[in-house]
Amino acid sequence: MTSGVPIGVPAGAMPPAPTRERPRSPVQRPGRVGEESARIDGVPKVRGEFEYSSDLWMDGMLHGATLRSPHPHANIRRMDTSEAEEMAGVHAVLTHEDVPGRKVYGMEIPDQPVLAWERVRYQGEPVAVVAADHPETARRALEKIRVEYEVLDPVTSAEEAMREDAPKLHLSGNVLRRVKVLHGQPAGATAEVVVAGEYEVGMQDQAFLGPESGLAVPDGRGGVDLHISTQWLHIDRDQVAESLGLAPDEVRLTLSGVGGAFGGREDLSMQIHSCMLALETGRPVRMVYNREESFYGHVHRHPCKMRFEHGATRDGKLVYVRAGLVFDGGAYASSSNAVCLNAATFACGPYDVPHAQIESHMLYTNNPPCGAMRGFGAVQACFAHESQMDRLAGALGMDPIDLRLKNAIEPGMRFPFGQEVPHPAPVREILKKVKDVPMPEEQELAGRDPRELPGGVSNVTRGEGVKRGVGYAVGFKNIGFSAGFDDYSTARVTLAVEGGEPLVRVHTAAAEVGQGLVTLQAQIARTELGVERVAVEPADTRVGSAGSTSASRQSYVTGAAVEGACAAIREHLFERVREELGGNGDLSLDGDEVLSEGRVIVSLVDLLGDEEIEETLEYHHKETHPLDENGQGDAHLQFAFAAHRAVVEVDTELGLVRVVEIATAQDVGKIMNPQALEGQIEGGIAQGLGLALMEEIQVKSGKVQNASFTDYLLPTILDMPSVRMEILELADPEAPYGLKGVGEPPTISSTPAIVAALRDATGQPLTRIPVRPEQMVGISSKPPEEPPHPGSAGYAEIGRLDERPEH
Amino acid sequence: MEFIQPLNLAEALEAKDAHPEAVPIRGGTDVMVGLNFARSRPAAVLDLSRVEELEEWGLEDGLLRVGAGVSYTRIIEEIGGRLPGLARASRTVGSPQIRNRGTVGGNLGTASPAGDGLPPLYASDAEVEVVSTRGSRRIPVADFISGPKRNALAPQELISAFYVAEAGGPQQYSKIGTRNAMVIAVCAFALALHPESGRVGTCVGSAGPTPLRAEEAERFMRGVLEEGGLWESRGAIPEAALRRFGELVAGAARPIDDVRGTAEYRRHSVGVLARRALGWAWDEYRGVRGAA
After folding, report:
1. Rounded-to-10 torsion of CA A522, A528, A532, A534
2. Contacts A656 to B, Cβ<8 Å
3. Domain containing A103: what range?
4. What ipTM was reported for this prediction?
5. Residue A446 belongs to some domain of the structure
6. Closest to A328 in 3D by CA, of A206, A203, A207
7. B252-287, pLDDT tens digit by residue?
8. HSE value, Cβ hemisphere, 13 Å, CA-based, for A211
9. Which residues of B touch A719 (CB under 8 A)?
């Protein structure tokens, strides 16, 4: 829709292509693996000096803005950009016609338009982008773009999407994925005690504080450099290049400061748009979403409705589980395929279940697209299976912990999806540990500081109506990408003398998103090479892929790659020592020196001289396999387990809550960095608490009702209690240092533990999360909806949509 | 957009006279959200943050006169002893940063039914002072707030202060929010006991188009206290009367369903808050230990 010459710039007056300096890589003096090691970006972040992607700036840059559909479902009749193009200060107005390459993108299934044409399928879908010399000019230009919509009825729930007469949102139909897991003989299974329940999970948001943002810089030769906050540079690079019609090496990505991710940065947001604008205008283009736009700019956690039936013997041994899970995937596929598979494989929980029949369904609707979020399908399943275990304990008159202990899965058994339970799988141990944590003392209600009562500073109770409740839950999840995906990471490590001292440089494309990988990589180099000084280079696409910072996998996979590259350098050094110095026996590295049998034989400075040793290693984790048609297969790499106990106080007259304490027991294999571990556990629990009590994107008729931090509530410091941790270090023999991924388990079972405690305090069934005050005082928040009937009717058989990876 | 920054009240009034369309801004906690999200695009903004006259408070003819630009933090710290209900409400406003910038003047200007600063003014019969180059007038707060997000301010006028009596008895403010700090009210309740006149002042917040006095509840409780001679005897209010009071307050609410809560829950919980708040205030009046 625009000519080749940018508006407002006379032909022939193109400014020279500007460049942006590579960010510095500060030298760290990290601790060894297992030691406390303060994160290098900690102080700059606290002081406001850290450069997040929203702070990126270049002289002469333009500002991008996005026109989004106000309708969840509509045909685009006509689009007229002429008025916007004529505005002073506007340099480009681009639509789908201007997408140079593939017009769609997507990690698993490329079904999402870069810019919509013909039809929009969710509220907030990008329709056009603008670059202007001022953000406000860009925003006003959006208002001048005329789009004529023919508004269509939206499909607003998964149940609706299943109906035969529902409009087909994609050529393939509305069923995005179904996964069936059949184990034992579930069809004829009967049991002495049967409990059934229906559960619902609302749409949680990752709610990262740093909005989607980045800076695209044209290189003057047709290529582009993109500075971006993301979780996986290389998959972004591949998708951006494909849509720009460029070769992958013409698109170079550098990780910018990431202000939180939690899965919400796995999909593209403004990456292609900013590059299109930069290439069109020949100028650097920055795009920064505002808070409201951010709610439309990334995928969310899938809302889910689940029906479960558990059968057990009278003495509490599980006989069977039958479950149907129906996920609302929203308008586009994102990573819904893998979420659907995950939920199916984890639906029974970490229990020995002789017979199981699980059906997990993922539907397209006109609701906001949903995808990856911390816990990835295990969160929804865990809420249901743990609620069921409590319900079953109630029906049996058994202690909920005893019931779980009795049915805990053990190494050597088989999960319902057929995979053998590897060692260690300490379900019993963590349950016992968390039960044995001393209970917090019951404080007098009278005379308390209001901040220690439900309602906090809002002054609603001085103890009236307050009841205490206790609840337990246990959960598990796969670590790393699953189901046959070749999951790997690449590390390039160099060792040289710089400034008179040895320095290790570690270069990977692994995204630091706040979890502390930048410190961990340095710790590993320090440990493996005995060198005091380590610099972790900025993550970019000049080195091979590190895979995604998700699925709790980076410590494992990139950790192993760094360890391996360091080991190769070490071998190289030892060979030299043996050749040049005739050293023999047990060589080791420590304190910047080479030791033989514990005695220093040469310093690294002397040994290296001017030489730089470089090793690059690609680490592939062991093979996994897709599930067969009965949902059987060695699908997962590693399993991580955590258990939680929540103690709450509820004002039972008002339905307001104070979470008094969370206790957790988690097996981490190896504590790599104590402070980083505690941060992951506390942060994960806070996110689980948010889902239990307040965090929900409310969607009505396909439209988001609360796209702000005023009405999408996150827990504050007054909502988040202190956490008591019992950490187990049961090494996984196949993992580097024996470690297990730690990022997700804290989020998974903290939610059902809190809800169990709320049930204990209120006596209400509380089958939907987040739990509203209304539910706790017995006021229904809305008329009961028709429950889901998975498998009963309306499923169009579409077969496997894709053979692409699961994670 | 024009940016006008007067240095004193006289300049501010002249500017407002010349630019009646200008949107006044002081703390900016509401106005900036509107601007940042392009919900309002005023032709001019009148920045009152340099006008020191708006930051003054003191006693005038036996009433407290509090400038529209006094922040919530200062209300808590400097006037909290004299206006405990308003101070309690101020503590529930936003975060410390918001309380440092936000003002009751802003709550009056925005006239949202969820403004935490408003119910205590209703419960104590406060008056709002508005000024223009033509002079000033005082309007009872319940008349000043004329509807949801509407007030009685004329285009040339600015809110300069509010007048309210120092507390003559215990005051309470309680609000419901779905987290324990930094939350917009799902509903709220303000109470002021007026032993000098035998009255019980009330106001329901965030459960109607404007803050609402629960007048029937006030009359009922005034009667209970008079009939039983309880002001003099400082005897306990019967439990049944407390309950009835809560029911009458709940009945005065005119709530709706929205993203923050259902109408039914708002009605229910504001009744609970009213019953509890009156219990606490009355205990304090009776001198029960730890009741304040």
Report:
1. -30
2. 176, 178, 180
3. 27-152+210-259+265-297
4. 0.96
5. yes
6. A203
7. 999 999 999 999 999 999 999 999 999 999 999 999
8. 19
9. 179-181
